[in-house]
Model the fold of this input.
Amino acid sequence: MQPDGSAPRSRWIAYAKVLAILTIAYNLLEGLVSMGFGWSDGSVALFGFGADSFIEVFSAFLVLWRLKADDCGDELIQRERKVTKGIGWLLLVLAAGTIGGSLLQVKARAHPATALPGVIVSLASLGFMAFLWRAKRAAAKALDSRALEGDAACSLACIQLSAILLVGSLVFLLAPRLWWVDSTAALLLALFIGKEGWSMWRAADREDFDGGCGCH
Done:
């Protein structure tokens, strides 16, 4: 249960750790299911969405590492910087991979065998990730943490990707001859991912990055 605004810092840290663990558990399952369906149905968008789930997993592990230290000082700021940069790099790598896969699919004029799995996965993700996003934003604000803000941004990106995947899947269900819809959806996924990753990396690389040390 989310702590209230007057809760001690230690309770918010414990809450943030629980959110990270939930993120790891859910996204491992979602990633395996999505990539499995994407591979079997030949859907680059669904496969890329599954890969993004593992980015969420790595991001959550980075957050857990950040939460191991919470004493004010240079060490905490450096942890914030490293985690924020790490999440940014993860998103950039995923964006590049998704673009490459989508372009290959366009060249081959390939399309998924069915878009129904994409509809199911995206609807499930929209519900759970919306909860995680709101909860992570609250924790990031309470702890004044740029790293946790970055992790919340990853969850927001996942929500946006889920919406794009849902729209692309519905269009393909209604009009199967639009073979390029899945590839276009995958390219849109990559643009969202890459923009967020680049913004995070640039912010963490600034000399005046303070990390939101959380000292009150």
Q: What stands out?
A: Residues 7 and 142 are 9 Å apart (CA to CA). The mean pLDDT is 82. DSSP finds six helices and no strands in the chain. The radius of gyration is 18 Å.
